[in-house]
């Protein structure tokens, strides 16, 4: 049965007013552009009930009691991975028969939606303790300190990666029409590894890693890019170098090399990409490069550098935010091969705005407070 239209209170009052002035049903219907039957129903109800208000008790009776709804909420909040079918069986066991669809609809009405769980690093008790100690020891650092940090990281940029996956609008049985498909390439069609850095003042150098990076190549990349970036970004003499705990970064050889350089190095807790704001920029970069559809690795790198220079904004390393930006920007450009992938990456990296970098670093204390709040666990950053 189709539910009848519910007219506004103002409209119903207008019907009664016109009726009291002596207007007939047909005339009122024409004046208000409302069906004559509806006019009669409104007037009849007013004569019988003395009101135009919507009376309680109208509509379909709820299939679940408030007690059942509270049970569902408690159950999913305690066990987020429970399925609607499992919940249906739970209710059936106590005599309440409803469909899984009704349960899903009820939970949505309560603000609970089925979502794919976010992937986060696996944190051991030792990792959590280290993250918490880091946050507590740095949360009161002045903004001037964070503005002088050079955030660094590596990221992988794929020619036909996950950034190119999206929904399509199509009709039933049209899934395999070319416009509705996502062509795949064996082994992903190629990828490049990038090293990059940024500070509050903007993005620094971006360099492609050739082959599999080892400690020696890592040191060469730092030698070629770090001090030039520090100078270009005007970080001053009291700048701080940040890197994660990748084995190549913490090897005996690299530690000795860094000691000779005499750089001030920011202590870093393991398993903490959420503390590096460059991740956001990587995402933007990858999306921007994908839009440009690079055809080969050369274009991929060029576009990445280009988009990096355009990025407008950045959980413990803020450079993670930049990687996110970069990947997003590259993906939007749709590189067709690894050459284009690299070209697009360089292009997009160069586009990242200074304001984006400044925003990421200026909010760094909030990241640390978030880590303290969750006692070292993963954060939303």
Automatic annotation (TrEMBL):
Specify the superkingdom: Eukaryota
Which Pfam family, any one, appears in the UniProt record?
Answer: HTH_Tnp_Tc3_2
A GO molecular function annotation here is: DNA binding
- Stretches that traverse the bilayer: none
Among the GO biological process terms of this entry, one is: DNA transposition
Q: Which InterPro entries match?
A: Homeodomain-like_sf (IPR009057), HTH_SB (IPR057667), RNaseH_sf (IPR036397), Tc1-like_DDE_dom (IPR038717), Transpos_IS630-like (IPR047655), Transposase_5 (IPR052338), Transposase_Tc1-like (IPR002492), WH-like_DNA-bd_sf (IPR036388)
| Transposase Tc1-like domain span | 70-140
Q: Residue ranges of the Tc1-like transposase DDE domain?
A: 149-300
Residues forming the Sleeping Beauty transposase HTH domain are: 1-53
Identify the NCBIfam families for this entry: transpos_IS630 (NF033545)
Instruction: Give the protein name, as stated in the record.
Output: Transposase
Instruction: Give the organism the record lists.
Output: Leptobrachium leishanense
